[in-house]
Amino acid sequence: QVQLVESGGGLVQAGGSLRVSCAASGRAFSSYTMGWFRHAPGKGREFVAAISWRGGSTQYADSVKGRFIISRDNAKNTVHLQMTSLKPEDTAVYYCAASILRVAVFINEYNYWGLGTQVTVSS
């Protein structure tokens, strides 16, 4: 079991930066691929980024590639999403998720979810 709690959301102007974080608890955190998804009103939950067990590989949605960076610190049981050059279309609730798979980019591949943190980007 993994418990996930997101934090760091807020309101930011377009072009600005924000970092959302996820605190994890449970057995063998380092054995999980960690991902970030987001859910905007009227849209489904979409993949944003993922990072492998030890942080050696990352994946990003095309819409955020080059702007967002995912990282993890297994010693602290945390994962972060550093967001820069934010756009209004980045506005969403951002969810942290954990997967037992080595590579996971789909919702169904993730086993545990946080409750989300709101990120709002104003124009």
Features:
52% strand; four-stranded antiparallel beta sheet; 0% helix; mainly beta; 123 residues; seven-stranded mixed beta sheet; single chain; globular; 11 strands
Describe the protein's architecture and organization.
It is built from no helices and eleven strands. It has strands at 2-7, 10-13, 18-26, 33-39, 45-51, 58-60, 68-73, 78-83, 92-99, 112-113, 117-122.
Number of DSSP helices?
0
Share in helix:
under 10%
Low-confidence stretches: none
The amount of beta strand, in percent, is: over 45%
Span of the ends, CA to CA: 40 Å
Q: How would you describe the shape?
A: globular
Q: Which secondary-structure class do the elements indicate?
A: mainly beta
Annotation, overall tally of beta strands: 11
Major β-sheet profile: 7 strands, mixed
The SSE string, one letter per element, is EEEEEEEEEEE
- Using the CA coordinates, give the radius of gyration: 13 Å
Q: Could you tell me the mean pLDDT? A: 94
What is this entry, summarized?
The protein is an all-beta fold and 123 residues long. The chain has no helices and eleven strands.
